[in-house]
Amino acid sequence: MRLSRKTAGKGIIILNLFTICVFLLVILKILPYESISGGQLESYDAAVRTSTTSIVMMIYGIPVIAAVSGLIRVKAYKKFYIGWLIFALILMAVLFFEASIMGVIVVSFGVPLIAVAAGVIEYQQFNLFAKIYLWLSFVFACLNSLGNLLGATWFEKIIMGLVTVIQAMLFFYLARGNPKRKARKGSKQG
């Protein structure tokens, strides 16, 4: 079965939305806070901070994934991405002051890509920054999968572990790009 870039992008976005729902359930005290962060959080307040930061980062990533997977035409949404670039820079500053180095790194993955989409950097650089963003996201998803699989609760090991493994596979698919197809005999080349 061949997976399209758009389908992979939709899959990542759906998994991000699922994860956002999990963090919201923790904030609403429907899921115990021990269900996230490997069971290492010491209080509900720490879980709310972690969940809020994660939700913002997931929301941040959705338009980036939509752009790199071809779900939207980047040039048609230039004004939106100018606003998103400002949001990304503010988010990086907030994460820096919260001492969330991993958050700063993750957000910084997408800043050049958003800058291209906003027209701040020439569009010819889009594919290069998309590749970098996708490969770094793949590595982050793999690390996240490892953390989930070593988590303290069955929910984190099974459910969230499966979610992040699938995300890693989808990021890998998008990052490796489309393999060059051999030209068919008799087809026009040019």
UniProtKB/TrEMBL annotation:
Entry's transmembrane regions: 12-31, 51-72, 79-97, 103-121, 133-152, 158-175
Keywords in alphabetical order: Membrane, Transmembrane, Transmembrane helix
Protein name: Uncharacterized protein
Native species: Acetobacterium malicum
